[in-house]
Amino acid sequence: MLGSVITFFGVGGGTYYYAHEIEPASLQITKEMITSYRIPASFNHFKIVQFSDTHIGFQYSFSQLEKLVKTINDQKPDLIVFTGDLIDEPQTFQSSQQLIKVLQQLHAKHGKFWIYGNHDHGGYGTDMVNDIMNQAEFQLLKNSHKNIELGNEGITLVGVDDLILGSPDLKAALANSDEEKFTILLAHEPDYADIARKYFVDVQLSGHSHGGQVRLPLIGHLYTPIYAEKYVQGKYELNNKDFSLYVNRGIGTTRLPFRFLCKPEIHVFTLHSK
């Protein structure tokens, strides 16, 4: 695969420049309407912004992060969720205070929530990343849930630990939650959907795949990591459309500093009571 990528980019300097410099900085805002009879009327037009896989430190700078923060705030989100892989190599990261300061600038009326990705646990980064996100006023959902309430109505936001280097436990995460409430799950790896679809979950939001990072015409993605091999990007409807999975292509890059036909993205979800 690596040889094929190098050969492809070697065809022309213009292709290399575009994939290395232009597309990784070409953020796409993907807007989705989530409609369900289980969504309370008070949550009509409730807006959730998801961002994922920033991989800060590997071809993704603080100046780029500051622009991302402004773009997210411009969407006027009611809720912000981050679905893992904040820093590419936590063991070598030296700019925690600067990162905290930037992330503190994100604002959402009903809170900011996050889950662990495999890079967050890797390189002994578990406690460090948790400390950064705590100080940035993000609430960790690690095999736990949070009730989001408007008046006398509510929805449930659930998060599980990373599948590769953590210990995800959806049963524990859903314990004592109300299965009659509309339930959104944050799970870093998208293939976890095959487990989540067996529970009373309506929507799963994931990252991890980067959409493959490099996609070729007629071929599609060349590679995705483990547990992002079945569900790669976009929306999937399972359980006869009773369960929806959205896979975010992420912000940064990893392994190879390229994106081709696979722009970075944030998701803007607007809830609608059917």
Quick structural gist:
It contains 8 helices and 14 strands.
Protein model, in words:
With about 270 residues, the chain is α/β, with parallel strands linked by helices. The protein has a single domain (about 1-274), classed as 4-Layer Sandwich (Purple Acid Phosphatase, chain A, domain 2), CATH 3.60.21. Helices cover about 25% and strands about 25% of the residues. The protein is built from eight helices and 14 strands. The chain has helices at about 1-10, 15-20, 60-75, 95-105, 120, 125-135, 170-175, 195; strands spanning about 30-35, 45-50, 80, 110-115, 140, 145-150, 155-160, 185, 205, 215, 220, 235-240, 245, 265-274. The strands form three sheets. Strands 1-14-2-3-4-5 form a six-stranded mixed β-sheet, with helices on one face. Strand 10 (about 215) and strand 11 (about 220) form a beta hairpin. It is globular.
